[in-house]
Amino acid sequence: xxxxxxxxxxxxxxxxxxxxxxxxxxxxxxxxxxxxxxxxxxxxxxxxxxxxxxxxxxxxxxxxxxxxxxxxxxxxxxxxxxxxxxxxxxxxxxxxxxxxxxxxxxxxxxxxxxxxxxxxxxxxxxxxxxxxxxxxxxxxxxxxxxxxxxxxxxxxxxxxxxxxxxxxxxxxxxxxxxxxxxxxxxxxxxxxxxxxxxxxxxxxxxxxxxxxxxxxxxxxxxxxxxxxxxxxxxxxxxxxxxxxxxxxxxxxxxxxxxxxxxxxxxxxxxxxxxxxxxxxxxxxxxxxxxxx
Length: 292
Known about the structure:
The chain is of the alpha/beta class. Helices cover 29% and strands 21% of the residues. It has helices at residues 54-63, 84-91, 173-183, 202-226, 232-239, 248-264, 284-288; strands at 10-14, 17-21, 34-40, 43-47, 68-72, 95-97, 114-115, 121-122, 130-134, 143-146, 151-155, 190-193, 268-271, 274-277. A hairpin with a 2-residue loop joins strand 1 (10-14) and strand 2 (17-21). The chain starts with 9 loop residues before the first strand and ends with a helix.
């Protein structure tokens, strides 16, 4: 049975994994940012301690199922990493992650003691280590953590119940899709997202996200074919006519990310008067779904 995210309540997901949802529910965070504990009686690693909010830091310290031996983050957006440094300092434990990119949405005070890379590990006493999977796309420094029993802690790479916003220049749609495809090669039993409940059918979830993104990209390409050169504002109305206009400001960000990807693929160019095909016929493979 799926266990709901109740802010401030420690939820056991398995003998080695627990979830504590922060008190920051909102339009962009859903029920709140999920903080995870991985480990056993000998010690746990805290993953994504969330915003630097005193009540949540206190809850992490009070409700930790075992002594905290380290703090890790999936990425340095402001709803995931700001509590990492003060929490680690108060507990006297090391911090793991990748340094923040120099873009405004990142928390620049995050300085990891150990800089992680794809294929790296985090040691936990008496257990097989956490495996590090670098998944750029939502953020260039985004990491997922794979537990020994196949649960992937995904931060904002995969979220339950909503799509991920990709914001250039640090967010990259091409990298995001490639990172999703990489996950299909892993033996996953579940996904523990940064927002929302446990996802127990990871392969179909990942395939569904890929299909959704590529379907939207085909719609963007079709809109450009019919109305070019075209501004981003016009493209939002054409390519996102199936979602409420209130969502268009967020959709505009993902649209821009798709256009940057199509430019990278050599299908579109940007001019003073808007976006258009690189040359006649260069969008046709995208529209048909042949170039993905």
